[in-house]
Amino acid sequence: MTKKNTINTLGDAELEKMLEETRAALRTERFAAAGARPKDPNAPAKMRKTIARILTEQHARKTKAPTI
Q: Where does the UniProt annotation place the signal sequence (predicted)?
């Protein structure tokens, strides 16, 4: 699990890659859970929170006022 401090230090390309990987993992977890009992029932919630943190950081960088 990645902490918020780590997300703040990543570059834009790294954030995009991490977002894609986390979304793919969440999709896999969701469909795997349909067939059998998951090992970690809280994993999807953790992944959704990570995705939200990444999107929040991307939005903050995009809307950040340029320094003059």
A: none
What is the pTM for the complete model shown? Answer: 0.80
Q: Letter for the amino acid at 28?
A: T
Domain limits for position 24: 4-63
CATH of the domain at 58: 1.10.287
Query: What are the C-alpha distances in Å from 37 to residues 28, 33, 40?
Result: 14, 6, 9
Q: For residues 10 and 18, is the Cβ–Cβ distance under 8 A?
A: yes
User: Which residue, 66, 48, 68, 54, is CA-closest to 11?
Assistant: 54
